[in-house]
Amino acid sequence: MNISVIIPVYNASEFLEKAVDSALQFEEVREVVLVEDKSTDNSLEVCQKLVVKDSRVKLYQHPDKGNHGAGATRNLGLEKAGCEFISFLDADDHYLPNRFNAEKEIFKDEKIEGVFGAIGVEYLTEKGRKEFQDKFKDISLTTVNFPAEGKEVLKGLLGLTLRVFGTFFHLNALTLRKSSLVKNNLHFNENLRVHQDSDFITKLAFHCYLKSGIIDKAVAVRGVHDNNRITKIIRYSPQYNERQFLLWKSLYEWTAANPLPSECRKKIYLTYKSFDLSLKTGLNKYFCTFLEVIKNPQILKTQYRFTYLNR
């Protein structure tokens, strides 16, 4: 295998060297692609030092040297990456020594276009630990609940399998054939300032043949600190609902041009409408998921009635 590791860099000077070193430990990693997104700390200087330190480290910035967000930054990394395989790593996270153990075997099957695994957590600050555990309880492993491949991955991500599949797997534990990304014109939605990863992974699971790798133990580690965006938004708050709405709107618009199975199309539509209605009504207590609608269709009728009466 020859792998390009893409690391978007924004205000990560404190953690970046550890992330890069964790990628360089593998002989399969032929290049680490740093894309610096106009940090306000000294991340750019750290990047420049890492380039000098190891010739495998490549540094890029947006043409206008501006800040464009994680989606555009990862897309620039995809454009610059020159290896057969692509992996991602956040600048405040790191790989473990078993990161590519499964990939080296699974990718011998040429039909496999992507492999995903599990990531662990490391608490770097006490405030970060408290915020993370308040939101996610004491989850030590972000993973799926059972091995899956092919069409079952998309259904699992959308909550349509008989067994609960689990959460979205993390980009840190995803490895892809670059040729498959090019063939399917897959990239991150630059209009989403958050949740670009969930949007990308859902579309990826439809267009590409994915297979689970190591899912019972971590292959990478998420660094949790004071500035993690994922812990700052309260579930079902107006800000949470708005960002979820934009994610599911992106997926809903994507379904118009792609022949998804009807159950997948329906789930995406109903989730999109749920967040749409929650924003229009302003009543988070009426927020409904797809499963809640199935159990009680009256919920959706109540939301429509409330919206109509308050136009």
Automatic annotation (TrEMBL):
Every Glycosyltransferase 2-like domain range: 4-126
The UniProt record lists the keyword Glycosyltransferase: yes
Record has Glycosyltransferase as a keyword: yes
One Pfam short name: Glycos_transf_2
Molecular functions (GO terms): hexosyltransferase activity
Alphabetical keyword list: Glycosyltransferase, Transferase
SUPFAM superfamilies in the record: Nucleotide-diphospho-sugar transferases (SSF53448)
UniProt cross-references to PANTHER family, sorted A to Z: GLYCOSYLTRANSFERASE (PTHR22916), GLYCOSYLTRANSFERASE EPSH-RELATED (PTHR22916:SF51)
UniProt-recorded name of the protein: Glycosyltransferase involved in cell wall biosynthesis
Species the sequence originates in: Chryseobacterium shigense
